[in-house]
Design brief:
- The protein contains eight helices and five strands.
- It is mainly alpha-helical and 292 residues long.
- The strands form two sheets. It has a three-stranded antiparallel sheet. Strands 1-2 form a two-stranded antiparallel ribbon.
- A hairpin with a 5-residue loop joins strand 1 and strand 2.
- The radius of gyration is 25 Å and the shape is elongated.
Amino acid sequence: MADWREITEEEEADIERHVTRVVRRVGSARIDIEDVLRDLEITGLSRKKKREVIRKVNRILDRLDADLRVEAEDITEQTFEHGRALTLVALGVAASVGAAKRMLRDNRGANNAQKAIVSDAYETLTDDLLAATQNTRNHVKREVRRAAAATIREGREGRQGARSQIRELRRRLGTSANLAITDRGGNTWKLNDYTKMAIRTKAAEMQVEGERTEALREDVQYGIVSRHSDPCPRCAPWEGRIVKLTADAPGDYPTIEEARASGLLHPNCKHLVTPVSSFDLLPKRLREQNGV
């Protein structure tokens, strides 16, 4: 194996390309929904019109859901493969990421454990993305029904009372098209922002898992956490540290799971864990930092 080296930023998976593509598709669907709601005539809104609007919104989101299923599969598979390729480069098995990916395609298929990881990740990412679009459906339905109820009250109470609500109803309708979820902390995520976070988080996780599992196939049990400019407070203490890629590895080093539990590899995190076959191959600064 060649001397260990850190993976460069240019060699990291192009996660933002995936994010940009999916967010563009989500944004297009959101605009289509906003157009449907903008054209909705609130005054005199009948039950038939209400059902028609909800059907239009559902059709838009059904198409989006189908696209998201395809994207989730591509994202999990491609970033996992990229992580595997990075390990082969770091260990000197391949000279470049491109050469490593050709090797993976030609004669180094994923083992059963790796296939299971990718399958689980695909299901998780799909569930996360579709949960957001389902919540958007629910928000839109609720606000359309609210507007319909206001129309009924208009008939009972006269147009003056209903007109005073029209502006607020239109605001709520517009907002409903861009609501994804409200998390446990009570924070409301817009659809685009939630999509970005979900994809960045799962894609980065899959890159690290690709690195880790391919290293274990090479009987390499340790990795080094990458360094980045201006790391967040949770990640900064972990930069440059040795971590175990499996709990069975000897030595008093934290496992990658313990690093995660302490804040590393959090949502939107960009850190990697580059495998190392021998501590003797590490640069002096990293040996000193880790006491090896």
